[in-house]
């Protein structure tokens, strides 16, 4: 989609800048005006890893005036196979600082702003507000949904990319003019379904292919030239050496940019994406039953205290017969522990099995070693035991 330039031109270019950017300046569609827009632009890169490396280096070389870097990690030897903004001597250094040094070596006229911290609900709005455009180079679903929602809430465009083994995807999301990430992916994949690059690997040079698309789209958005990937998904297959474009539509039922949004502020993204804490993970080992096993226990007459740890609004939508509602927070603050029975089997459940795992950790820590939780929660119950119930 063709869009007006995101950024107004800077007042002027210095003689040194004219010399440096001459190959841009003689492209008619860029010219002095386009280069002045790049100089005035403020671009934030979320992550200085696989995608952030080529993105930051080419954005710097292109003359983007202000580059923000959000990154809390340090450089590890296993990063160097693809994260080319860092070098051997940077191992152990904060990635944000290493990336800044490389950017300034490429182009000393760039103003680099470091956000040497993890992006969280507490800082994402304030950080994003300082920039015209965001480049999403994150590698996990919780952060991706947070980036999307913050961008939608602030009305900012962003360029998204993702990589895995030989496959890459990229698009531009901007809810004011087209679809957002949730229009494409309304629900995160179940935890453990989609391996990360750390688990499944990634061809290093794939980062360059997708990172280059992201920078290209960024420059087009900033200067207002060409047709951007807004409303289109680029899918790259390195093995077949094939690029495909898929048309994307804005989803009228999108949870955040649709006609009746249910997401009107930032949410708990770890919970949404099913990230389980180490304690919760440990608590579920040997203490997990399926929805069908719960049904079998109920049918057999086994004495059970079935506790739904969701929130009241969710309880109103659908509930498992025989359950009582005690929201997860009551277990985490300890209030619910005194009311737990000693003479019955304690079974916890939630919607998907994430919150019940956290509650289970607290219950087992309080001495109820036989307590269990239901894998997949209400969703699994509806799918495997009673399909007549609604899933939300
Ligand atoms: Zn949307």
Helix content: 25-40%
Order of strands, main sheet, comes to: 3-2-1-4-5-6-7-8
Distance between the termini: 33 Å
User: Helices and strands: which structural class?
Assistant: alpha/beta
Low-confidence segments: none
Number of helical segments with 4 or more residues: 17
Give the bound compounds: zinc ion
Family: In the N-terminal section; belongs to the HesA/MoeB/ThiF family.
GO molecular function: ATP binding; nucleotidyltransferase activity; sulfotransferase activity; thiosulfate-cyanide sulfurtransferase activity; ubiquitin-like modifier activating enzyme activity
Subcellular location: Membrane
GO cellular component, one term: membrane
Describe the model.
The chain has 392 residues and is α/β, with parallel strands linked by helices. Helices cover 36% and strands 16% of the residues. The protein is built from 17 helices and 13 strands. The protein has an 8-stranded mixed β-sheet with strand order 3-2-1-4-5-6-7-8, sandwiched between helices. The longest helix is centred in the middle third of the chain and has 18 residues, at 206-223. The chain is elongated, with a radius of gyration of 24 Å. The site of zinc ion (ZN) has 9 residues, from α8.
Question: What keyword list fits this structure?
Answer:
single chain; 392 residues; five-stranded parallel sheet; binds zinc ion
Spell out the blueprint of helices and strands.
Layout: H1 15-20, H2 22-25, H3 31-40, E1 42-46, H4 52-62, E2 66-70, H5 95-106, E3 111-115, H6 124-128, E4 133-136, H7 141-154, E5 158-164, E6 167-173, H8 181-184, H9 197-200, H10 206-223, E7 232-237, E8 242-247, H11 269-273, H12 278-284, E9 288-289, H13 291-300, E10 304-308, H14 312-317, E11 323-325, H15 328-332, E12 345-349, H16 354-365, E13 372-374, H17 377-384
Parallel strand pairs: 1-2, 1-4, 2-3, 4-5, 9-13, 10-11, 10-12, 12-13
Antiparallel strand pairs: 5-6, 6-7, 7-8
Helix pairs in contact: 4-5, 4-10, 12-16
The protein binds zinc ion.
